[in-house]
Amino acid sequence: xxxxxxxxxxxxxxxxxxxxxxxxxxxxxxxxxxxxxKKVARAFAKILAHLNVSYAVLGKEETxxxxxxxxxxxxxxxxxxxxxxxxxxxxxxxxxxxxxCPHCYNIFKNEYTDLGGNYEVINYVQLLDKFxxxxxxxxxxxxxxxxxxxxxxxxxxxxxxxxxxEPRTLLKAITTNYVEMDRSxxxxxxxxxxxxxxxxxxxxxxxxxxIERTEDVLKTNPKIIATACPFCxxxxxxxxxxxxxxxxxxxxxxxxxxxxxxxx
Length: 264
Description:
The protein is α/β, with parallel strands linked by helices. The protein has two domains: 11-128, 3-Layer(aba) Sandwich (Rossmann fold); 139-262, Rossmann fold (3-Layer(aba) Sandwich), CATH 3.40.50. Helices cover 42% and strands 9% of the residues. The protein has helices spanning 11-16, 28-33, 35-50, 67-71, 75-91, 102-110, 124-133, 165-174, 209-219, 230-242, 254-262, and strands spanning 23-26, 55-56, 96-99, 120-123, 149-151, 224-227, 250-253. The strands form two sheets. It has a four-stranded parallel beta sheet. It has a three-stranded parallel beta sheet with strand order 5-6-7, with helices on both faces. α3 (35-50) crosses α11 (254-262), α7 packs across α8 (165-174) and α9 packs across α10. The N and C termini lie close together (5 Å). The model has no long low-confidence stretch (mean pLDDT 90).
């Protein structure tokens, strides 16, 4: 997946040439700074290039959406960050935004509207599912077809935005051995990192949430746990390490699995 290099178009460069891409690909803090999630951002950028999608990133002009600030209770910082982003979007006439992070997706779609930021916000699983339905995305599942895969629903995709079918459709195109956890879809358990919990110490209790959720994963006896959120990826990876299962079970984002199946 790391063999083929691609050029990622930057919004300012395209605008300087008089070009206007269809989509803004919002990379997000994790895609930009977290070493593990950078691989997911690269995988998705390769898929976009493979599908000849008209897109660009903001590059150095991209900042945080303000979601962690708002979840942690700092409303003023959130509004400052959001209004700054809305001005940049206005400058580049952004109409459609693709996200790889459910937290970015949720806040753009449901909360920026209060500040005048109205966009068509698309999570990457929705986009890939649409392309597969239209016949543009043709998945060769031969490399993963027998791998037993389970999927952890991110809270901000599932319960917050009712995106349950698209990730499953994609995974079932990749493997014939897809298995659901007992607690899935609207009954899925949080990974334990949402609502700014990622950035603070765990509260007192008998068991941390990510351990409880990892035990749900282990019950399905998978080869791969598929995730679609940087928070979930961190917590599931930590859970597998905690249970000494990181050699037996791998944690991949859906974008990485699609890229593997496409040979990218």
